[in-house]
Design brief:
Number of strands: 10
CATH architecture of the largest domain: 3-Layer(aba) Sandwich
Number of domains: 2
Structural class: alpha+beta
CATH superfamily of the largest domain: Class II aldolase/adducin N-terminal domain
Largest sheet: 8 strands, mixed
Number of helices: 9
CATH topology of the largest domain: L-fuculose-1-phosphate Aldolase
Low-confidence stretches: 85-91
Helix content: 25-40%
């Protein structure tokens, strides 16, 4: 299995560790993450069937280092840094890191990273089994999605549910996991992590709004204003046009 550990893979692994460590620090320091530090990233290794998996250290961890597992979609472990000596293993648990979102990577070539995360207010919406409408200008500015779906029936694998939601709306960037956290995806680890912070902030404000009758839809011109700020207006305008 060591023949699969190429210079390109090691370079990507080094970059992934740095990006993950930065994103974890920001999300933790801004209290975007819950106390358990549940923050896991799964990255596609280009032109292979491999996945780089990184998990944030838990709050009780004696060693805060960011360590990776590299495994295939079939569960073959190529590298396990969580084991003594960083030697290749074939353990079932480590191999699951490659299998967890394999269907997403196989069927959605535009997805390069999947992140599973627990945040307080997205967790609240998830526990309520409610779709999250996006009604916070700062988060709507960076996505054309208007809501996050809720994943309730776990008899259907999460990765299959994600693929279905992307097929329904390719702009959907995340799902809520009923009675749990949320799963996001996109092109880049830092880009997706920044979206997590903004969406969680929106869920916080919208949660507060429930005390006053609930958050309301954007007023006239808001979507145009926000999407023009990030260059999404040309695409967004098409979404707002009435169906012929």
């Amino acid at each position: 299995m060591s023949h699969r550990i190429t210079p390109a893979l090691l370079s990507q692994l080094d970059r992934a560790r740095r990006d993950f460590a930065k994103a974890f620090q920001v999300l933790r320091d801004t209290r975007t993450l819950t106390a358990t530090n549940t923050y896991q990233a799964y990255l596609r290794v280009p032109d292979t069937d491999l996945v780089i998996a990184l998990h944030a250290p838990g709050p009780w961890a004696d060693d805060p280092a960011i360590r990776a597992v590299v495994a295939s979609h079939a569960g073959e472990v190529v590298l396990d840094e969580t084991a003594d000596g960083s030697s290749p293993l074939s353990g079932r648990k480590a191999g699951g890191n490659g299998q967890r979102y394999a269907e997403v990577f196989q069927r959605r070539p535009e997805v390069n990273v999947v992140i599973h995360v627990h945040t307080p207010y997205l967790g609240g919406w998830a526990s309520a089994h409610r779709v999250l409408p996006i009604r916070y200008a700062a988060s709507q500015r960076v996505t054309l999605a208007r809501e996050l779906p809720i994943y309730i029936d776990r008899r259907q694998p999460e990765q299959a549910f994600i693929v279905e939601r992307i097929e329904e709306n390719p702009h959907t960037p995340a799902i809520l996991e009923a009675n749990g956290g949320a799963t996001f995806w996109g092109e880049d680890l830092l880009q997706v992590s920044k979206l997590i912070l903004l969406i969680e902030e929106g869920a916080y404000f919208q949660g507060l709004a429930e005390l006053f009758g609930g958050s309301q839809e954007f007023g006239p011109g808001v979507l145009e204003q926000q999407w023009k700020m990030t260059g999404l207006w040309a695409q967004g305008q098409k979404l707002l046009e009435p169906a012929a």
